[in-house]
Amino acid sequence: MGEVVNLRQARKRRDRSAREDEAEANRVKHGLSKAEKNLSAARRDQDARKLEGHRLKPESRHSEDD
Question: Under a CB-based contact definition with an 8 Å cutoff, are residues 40 and 32 in contact?
Fold first, then answer.
């Protein structure tokens, strides 16, 4: 005679496993290592400095009313 299986628990186990598999796939797909995050931040900062350096007219610290 076969083993008695609680179908509700089996469904929950199956769904939990599917969610864990999906989460693992998402971590691989979207996750970045710390080094990659640091490199990305450094490049963003460098791009911002370059853009600021090419500004034609510096920002005025005084308003037009002065």
Answer: yes
- At 53, list the tokens: 């350096």
> Tokens representing 61?
């610290």
CA dist 31 and 13 (Å) reads 26
Local structure of residue 66 (DSSP, 8 states): -
Tell me the per-residue pLDDT of 2-28, one tens digit each, with 9 for 90 and over: 899 999 999 999 999 999 999 999 988
d(Cα 31, Cα 38) in Å, to the nearest integer?
13
Structural domain boundaries in the chain: 26-53
d(C-alpha 13, C-alpha 18), whole Å:
9
The pair of three-digit structure tokens given for residue 58, joined into one six-digit string: 């510096």
Give 31-59 pLDDT, tens digit per residue: 888 899 899 999 999 999 999 998 887 66
Provide the residue type at 3 as one letter. E
